[in-house]
Amino acid sequence: MAVPEPTPEQIASRATLKSFVERMRPKVRRMVGNIKSEWFGRPDEELKGWVERGRAIEEIKDSLGYRLILTQTHKEIAWAQSQLEICDPKDVVDFRCYLRSLRFLQDFILTTEKNADIAGTVLAGREEAIGRESLAFVKSAVPGDRY
Hints:
mainly alpha
């Protein structure tokens, strides 16, 4: 089934619509930016900061070191708990202190997922940003991850 050719009225209407859209595009962009700031009650710079800190959280969670530390911390906590069941009474205090320190470390690391300011501070000292386009990200990416 062939598509019928547009009529001259349709061609004129499409041209008018296209020119209207082109004229309105800058005005709509300005309006959307103002609405975004008004909706959130925050200046654009603050909203951009939120986005950047959110990206910092994701960047930290993407790192191999982050996953390695969390995995090892979970293993150490499980080991320390199992040792508490079989250790001598004189070693209980040492194991409990070790367990508390591991939980403190784990809680601090997990706080970076919830507090964007901490994540931004952690990444502020790095030499360069590790973005998804960078060679460092490609080397640490896990096959099968979808972004």
